[in-house]
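Worked problem 6 (solution included).
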Amino acid sequence: MKLNELLVLLNENFPPETAIENDRIGLQVECCENIEKILIAFEMTDDIIEECLNLSCNTIITFHPLIYNPLKQILLSDRVGKIVSKLIKNQINLISLHTTFDAHKFGTSRILADLLELQPIDFLINNEKYPEAGMGIICEQNPPISAEKLINKIYSVCNSPIRSTIRPEQKVSRIAIVGGSGMSFVSEVLRKNCDTFITADATYHAFHAEQDKLLLIDVGHYEMEQFVTKGIASILKESFNARKIDFYVSKIVTNPIKYFPNNEYYSEQQRKLLT
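Solution. The predicted structure is:
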């Protein structure tokens, strides 16, 4: 398969117009034209490049972009510059999906909802051009479930420390989910009459601001998005099934955060990648 053909097919599955404005999606590093093996990874690290070479892949599709800001220089002393240099040296293409996958009907937020056994009813924000795409999702639970039960379920699925505004004996029924840094969507969550918001990267002051309005649950950024590589692979394998392309899902945990006390968080994240 040619690189341009791959990009066309990716755009058909994940239309660029569904991404958040100014997101860094699409082809980030171009090195070769012919593609046979593709590695799907959460984000770029040195270990991902080594894994790619070991699998004889020449293209990496990531969820998180490597290049967020324009590069004025490519320096080995800079994390992004060093990785870009290695990609070029080893003739590896790099493509990012990010919020185009978030917006997919089986994207980031839907994956977590399914794992939590919640019942999705709609996107949080619908895409006007693409009816089957949107940001975040809303789930309705009838009868309502206890907040404690929901948080315990999240803990068992995501295996991470959780911060929340839970109150004693609290029940919830209308739950919004936005994978990753979703606090910019909180006004929409409230406007859609949700009583619970599952997201990541909430600040201390955000917990203060929202504690009387809804149950705010911060799962952690990597922790709630850790399932996306398998989701991307599933969609692409189905879409590309008649084409001679081999897809590999990375087995490397790229999460830079270490936990204290550890409680086996990291090793459990590794186990879930391997199963």
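Discussion: The domain at 3-101+226-274 is CATH 3.40.1390.30 (Udp-n-acetylmuramoylalanyl-d-glutamate--2,6- Diaminopimelate Ligase; Chain: A, domain 1).
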